[in-house]
C-alpha cells in the first residue's frame, strides 16, 4: 500500500493527473490516496520553450507522463533522441545524467527523469553560451 501524498495548489494553478488536466479556482490541497502519474504546472515545459536539445528531450519525457494514450510513441521518440544526444555531448556530467535518465525512464520513474534532466539545463546553457566548444 502506498502512502498518501498531499499537493497544495494556488488559485488558477493546473495539475496534470493520469493524462487529465485539472485547474483549481481557489487554494486547495489534494490528497492522492493511491499511486498516480502527475505533473505540476510549474514543471510543464511549453513547446515554445523547447529551444535546446535537452529541453526537447524533457518535452518528450513530459509527454510520456501527460499523454498516457500516446506514451508508447513518446517512449520510442525518447530512445531515438537519447541515442543522438549520447553521441552529441562530450561533457561527462551530461553523459552521466543521460545514463541516469534512461535508467529512470526504462524503470518507469519518469518524474525522477524530468527532475534529473532539469538539473542538466544549467550545464547545457553554459555549453551553448560557449558555442559548444570544449565544454560540450
TrEMBL record:
Task: Please indicate if the UniProt record lists Phosphoprotein as a keyword.
Answer: no
Q: What does the UniProt keyword field contain? A: Bacterial flagellum biogenesis, Repressor, RNA-binding
* Domain of life, source organism: Bacteria
Q: Which GO MF terms does the UniProt record name?
A: mRNA 5'-UTR binding
The record's Gene Ontology biological-process terms are: bacterial-type flagellum organization; mRNA catabolic process; negative regulation of bacterial-type flagellum assembly
Pfam families according to UniProt: FlbT (PF07378)
Read off the NCBIfam families from this record: PRK00794.1-1
Q: What name does UniProt use for this protein?
A: Putative flagellum biosynthesis repressor protein
Which species is this record about?
Azorhizobium caulinodans (strain ATCC 43989 / DSM 5975 / JCM 20966 / LMG 6465 / NBRC 14845 / NCIMB 13405 / ORS 571)
Q: What is the lineage of its organism?
A: Bacteria, Pseudomonadati, Pseudomonadota, Alphaproteobacteria, Hyphomicrobiales
Amino acid at each position: 500500500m502506498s502512502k498518501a501524498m498531499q499537493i497544495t495548489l494556488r488559485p488558477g494553478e493546473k495539475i496534470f493527473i493520469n493524462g487529465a488536466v485539472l485547474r483549481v479556482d481557489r487554494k486547495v490541497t489534494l490528497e492522492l490516496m493511491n499511486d498516480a502519474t502527475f505533473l505540476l504546472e510549474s514543471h510543464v515545459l511549453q513547446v515554445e520553450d523547447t529551444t535546446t536539445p535537452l529541453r526537447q528531450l524533457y518535452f518528450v519525457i513530459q509527454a510520456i507522463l501527460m499523454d498516457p494514450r500516446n506514451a508508447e510513441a513518446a517512449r520510442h521518440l525518447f530512445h531515438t533522441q537519447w541515442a543522438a544526444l549520447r553521441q552529441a555531448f562530450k561533457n561527462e556530467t551530461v553523459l552521466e545524467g543521460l545514463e541516469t535518465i534512461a535508467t529512470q525512464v526504462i524503470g518507469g520513474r519518469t518524474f525522477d527523469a524530468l527532475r534529473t534532466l532539469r538539473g542538466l539545463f544549467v550545464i547545457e546553457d553554459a555549453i551553448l553560451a560557449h558555442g559548444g566548444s570544449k565544454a560540450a
